[in-house]
Amino acid sequence: MPRKVYSIDHKLTSSHKINKAKMGCGYFTCSRNALMALNILYVMIAVLLIGVAAYAKAISFIDSLAIIGAVIGCGAFLLLLACMGIFGAAKHHQICLFFYMVILFLLFLIQFSLAVALLALNKDTQDTLIEKAWEAENITLSKDVNCCSLHAWKKGDKTCSSSLRCCEGQNANSLCCGGKADVPCPCESCKKKLSPLVEMACKITGGVSLFISITEIFGVAMTVRYRSQRNPLSNANHYL
């Protein structure tokens, strides 16, 4: 008879411990839910990062800004990685969580480096990027930004034409717009118009990328903690 009472008490104690593990914020269930919520947040953040980087690339009008393209790639990769994290957290899959943790840390290093590089671009480096882009796509940039020549317009510069918006109306008579009137060119230089756009694109993309990289290192720490926790409802032999 005493054994029977001990058995009941032991079962009640075990059940109490399991409930405590399920309900306590520092225990398994809360860690799983927190990690899943973080990865759902990563999905939204990845979409935001892709959108912001694409917008920054669009407003700069320079398709050859490879560093911003790399940020878009990081956002797409984070989106796929977040799906992997949700699966690993839901199933408490040790192998999946391990590779998720390692890849997320590598992504943090890459994205943090890109963010610092974007925010650290000085005026001279930005001008160099603009000049290289101008050499590759000057006609396209001239039409998109509505500008004429990289610096001050000179005779023989073929980047100016009457199709530019700045050459409409009375400005069409100016020499740079194909007219015969020897007057100052009404169109601004492309470098003057592109410089603030490139600077804004770098700051927006770099700032958002830096914020996201900080959340990624937090995700790595949460995954390390969650992997070391034992599921109170699973078979203990699974962890031996």
Would you summarize the structure shown here?
The chain has 240 residues and is mainly α. The chain is built from six helices and no strands.
* Class derived from helix and strand content: mainly alpha
As residue ranges, the low-confidence spans are: 1-12, 21-25
By DSSP (H or I, 4+ residues per run), the number of helices equals: 6
How many strands appear in the DSSP assignment? Answer: 0
Radius of gyration: 29 Å
Write the layout of secondary structure elements.
Layout lengths: L1 H22 L4 H33 L5 H26 L2 H26 L3 H23 L44 H38 L13
Helix pairs in contact: 2-3, 2-6, 3-4, 4-6, 5-6
Key traits:
single chain, 240 residues, mainly alpha, 6 helices, 70% helix, disordered N terminus
